[in-house]
């Protein structure tokens, strides 16, 4: 299999962590690309030019990190990241933290192209409010079973989202308002798959 990715995409990092946790790391060839450079190989695999995209051994190209995670989870019975006793809760946590990722990522992209004043637009304010609400909801969930259980997809997306905020939006200093979540993230960051895929 081939996984098209770069080292700063939170979405690509989720897919890569899933591959590692499913013990499929040796089966996935990492193809490092710049999605902003209209890389021909990437566009051939995924015409919309987004990463990550996973090309299966059968030649099918699967885009979107959640779909890639679902596919990888089905390839091996090792450490199911989705089919846990808390399946519905895993999906709910995944959706919540994917929304946090989207709000943070879109903030970064808009700042890159339109300047930090884009935060003051109607959409910019909505993104900032979404980040605040999502962080508080996650803080309230720290002691729930889905956050305390064995690793699952929701935890992976949550950890990557928080790390991405630290990487790209450090001024938010979210840990001071969400100390329980900060402690959880610090513990989760000690996993080998998380260390191996650190943003760079």
Automatic annotation (TrEMBL):
PANTHER family: GLUTATHIONE S-TRANSFERASE OMEGA (PTHR43968:SF6), PTHR43968. This is Glutathione S-transferase N-terminal domain-containing protein. Residues 1-80 form the GST N-terminal domain. SUPFAM superfamilies: GST C-terminal domain-like, Thioredoxin-like.
């Amino acid at each position: 299999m081939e996984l098209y990715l770069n080292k700063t995409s939170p979405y690509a990092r989720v897919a890569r962590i899933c591959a590692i946790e499913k013990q499929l790391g040796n089966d996935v060839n990492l193809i490092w690309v710049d999605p902003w450079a209209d890389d021909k190989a990437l566009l051939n695999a995924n015409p919309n030019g987004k990463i990550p995209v996973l090309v299966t051994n059968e030649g099918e190209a699967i885009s979107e990190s959640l779909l890639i995670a679902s596919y990888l989870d089905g390839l091996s019975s090792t450490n199911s990241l989705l089919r846990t006793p808390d399946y519905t809760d895993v999906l709910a946590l995944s959706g919540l933290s994917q929304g946090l990722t989207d709000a943070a990522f879109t903030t970064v992209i808009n700042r890159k192209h339109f300047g930090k004043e884009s935060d003051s637009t109607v959409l910019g304010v909505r993104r900032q409010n979404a980040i605040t609400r999502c962080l508080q909801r996650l803080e309230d969930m720290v002691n729930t079973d889905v956050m305390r259980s064995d690793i699952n997809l929701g935890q992976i997306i949550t950890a990557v989202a928080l790390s991405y905020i630290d990487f790209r939006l450090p001024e938010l200093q979210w840990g001071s308002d969400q100390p329980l979540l900060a402690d959880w993230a610090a513990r989760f960051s000690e996993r080998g798959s998380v260390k191996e895929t650190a943003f760079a």
